[in-house]
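Here is an idea for our session: we take a single protein and study its fold together. To get us started, please write out a protein record for me. Start from the sequence, derive the backbone structure tokens from it, and show both lines together. Go ahead whenever you are ready, and we will take it from there:
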Amino acid sequence: MDFSQLINQIDADTYQRLKTAVEIRKWPDGRVLEPSQVELCLQAIIAYEHKHLPVDQHTGFMSQQCASQTKLDTEQADSQPQTVKIK
């Protein structure tokens, strides 16, 4: 079975278990997740979300820009081009 077939078989309960396992770094039976397992679980979580959830529920979704980017965009829009002189 390849990765895409595996993702197609994940149900909502399995998705929640994977999320919890990554959050606490343990399987439901208490075994610790290895770094490679965390990576694979995250890939599965993201793939499941892409297929089944709206964008605003995806892992890492930000509804608005961070404050520093908004400030930078405002400053750039307000400023005039400047000439830089190198001596």
Notes: The chain is about 55% helix and 0% strand. Residues 70 and 76 are 10 Å apart (CA to CA). The first helix runs from residue 3 to 9. The two ends are 64 Å apart (CA to CA).
